[in-house]
Amino acid sequence: MPWNDQSGGGNQNNSGGQGPWGGGPRRPWGQPPRPPQQPQGPDLEDMLRQWRERFRMGGGGSRGGGAGRGQISAPLIVGILVFGWLLSGFYQVDESERAVVTRFGDYNRTSGPGVHWKLPAPFEARQIENVTGQRTANIGYVVNRDQRVDNPEQSLMITGDRNLVEVHFRVIYNIKDVVAYVFNVRDQQEVVGQVAESAMREVVGRRQLEPIVTRERALVEQDVEVLMQQVLDEYESGVEVLQVELLSAAWPTEVIAAFNDVIIAGQDSETARNNAERETARIVNEAQAYREQVIREATGEAERFIAVHTEYRQAPQVTRDRLYLETMERVYRNGNLVILDSRSGAVPYLPLDGMVRRNAPAAPAQGGTR
Q1: Helices (H), ranges, the chain
Q2: Which of 194, 223, 251 represents a domain boundary (last residue)?
Q3: What is the residue range of 119's domain?
Q4: Same domain, 245 and 147
Q5: CB-hemisphere CA count at 13 Å for 199?
Q6: According to the model, what pLDDT value does residue 11 have?
Q7: Last residue of one domain, picked from the residues 216, 251, 286
Q8: Per-residue pLDDT tens for 164-182?
């Protein structure tokens, strides 16, 4: 057998590829066999095997048999993902809310209360807003631990008489058009606050300082509410102003003492004017009453004179005698007189002592006895 014959063809019992001495594969000049080379890098089959193991549902079997092993196929995974994607389109709207649905960024519809479905993202999107709840915007101050902290940049305003006033107020509003509220205004809270501050500055700038602080607070609230609604309607903001509450309107702290003196002086002036008006009314009433009395007395005297004159024209002598007798009666009514008739011829008895004693107490007042 040739030395280079590695097949061992002369001995059929020997395995193929061994040398003549049965030492395994033989290389020329008796060199030992080369060791097998290690594979470079990860094995692709091992990687695929690992991925299959991750998606295996049950216990693993032999590679050759598929029984006893369940695997999630790619169509099933895609179906589960699609089903979850479709479920993400369901949403719920409460009684006080409305949902604005957009398709590729454009307005599509408005949804009311209940459970609804929309095309999942990125086809359709929805924005839910509370349309019945009241919203509040604080102007001129910020709330810190339930206390109002002044914000000078918003609170200080100039009045019509060029004075400074510190104003704190609150605006209560809600949504009347949810579509306009969502699409026409980017930052609704900031826009409402800016409109409220601008409206208050305009209303305060048309009035004097003293009425704003004292008696015209309700008028200021009403004017600001009307002006705000006009501006917000022009912006098509979808906002409805419910109420404007003027919490405080006062002078700045630096000049409050001087303004308090002005208020006290004004109150004193008002009190003095009221007292003068009351005294004037009393005097006028008394003068009117006296005038009415004089007019009535003069009217009565005139009517009496006219009546006497009428009687005199009808019977002059009788009227003269009557007037004479009435006059004498009034003259001698309160006097102590004794009338003597000189034609009687008798000597009368005169009770002079009684007359003197009767007239004595009245002598100093009357000046003497007649």
Answers
A1: 44-54, 74-87, 152-155, 178-183, 188-205, 209-213, 217-235, 256-314, 316-332, 352-359, 363-366
A2: 251
A3: 90-130
A4: yes
A5: 26
A6: 45
A7: 251
A8: 889 999 999 999 999 999 9
